[in-house]
Amino acid sequence: MTFNTENIQKKMEGFAGQLTCILPQAKLRFCEQHIFCKNLYITDIGYYPNAADHERERKKGCAQYILIYCTKGRGWYILNNKRYEIKPNDFFIIPAGAAHHYGAHEKDPWSIYWLHFAGNDAAFYYQLLTKAQGGTPTSAGVSTSRQLIFYDIIQHLELMNNTDNIVYSCSCVHAYLSSFQNTQIKRSTNENDIIQQCIHFMKQNLDKPLRLDDISVAVGLSSSHLSSLFKKQAKSSPIHLFTTLKIQKACQMLMDNAHNIKTISYSLGYDDQYHFSRVFKKIMGISPKHFKNK
């Protein structure tokens, strides 16, 4: 008698050290109706380490969106009749209702964090995280906070009989999904290093009336190149960011009764108290005096 060993080897779950949590139907109905949870909630969540022979196919798709994040090893998935290869720090999202097929690499099986999510905002997060890539995988920067959020979610969901835990976990899903967004802060590139250098230099010189030339000299770039870099990455000019950092510092000082508006303005490089007040109001929407009294 012969056996189809290919089918025997396929595993949908059952991996040493795995973590899984699946919400029962009653809890899903709670999420669907709760004023906060219904916008974004978890239906299933888990972690499969060294998932040898892992493979899953859903010819009719899934009712939820599925995010799979690979931290080790390799894998693959098929979506819209196209096959994609996955390497460490790649993630992909399968849209709700889409037929798909995915699995671990035969010789270098992946370790994956996965999440099924639904709700009114689910489509928004899918578009946010995949708009530039379409169905292709996206690289995510390594993030300690992302891992901490994941374990925080799953530990609370383990006590799902307490509905407060479910509400809390749903609030964390927003942060978890957002951690995959390729924002300027998370990019690990030379351009980002320059911007971080600028921010550090600015924070060390909040007491000075820095000009664009001063900042560009500090990081060894021309003023035009630096301005172009900021416009591209930070969506702001260097001087506007510097002014914003000054005003944020002013807010902190205004909450301390030991400082008055005049001394704050001088300590932040403004010789004219009234000019400082105009700048503060332009950014914060209220005057320094109103802010302090409030």
Describe this structure in words.
By secondary structure, this protein is α+β, with helices and mostly antiparallel strands. The chain folds into 2 domains: 178 residues, Jelly Rolls, CATH 2.60.120.280; 104 residues, Homeodomain-like (Arc Repressor Mutant, subunit A, Orthogonal Bundle). Helix content is 44%, strand content 18%. It is built from 12 helices and 10 strands. A 6-stranded antiparallel beta sheet has the order 1-2-9-4-7-10. A 4-stranded antiparallel beta sheet has the order 3-8-5-6, with no helix packed on it. A hairpin with a 2-residue loop joins strand 5 and strand 6. The longest helix has 17 residues. It is elongated. The termini are far apart. The N terminus is likely disordered.
Keywords:
294 residues, disordered N terminus, 4-stranded antiparallel beta sheet, Arc Repressor Mutant, subunit A, 2 domains, Jelly Rolls, alpha+beta
Briefly characterize the structure.
The protein has about 290 residues and is of the alpha+beta class.
Count all strands and give the number.
Answer: 10
The proportion of residues forming helix, as a percent range, comes to 40-55%
Q: What would you call the shape?
A: elongated
- Sketch the major β-sheet: 6 strands, antiparallel
Instruction: For the record, give the distance between the C-alpha atoms at the N and C termini, rounded to a whole number.
Output: 83 Å
Count of helical stretches: 12
* Lateral arrangement of strands in the main beta sheet: 1-2-9-4-7-10
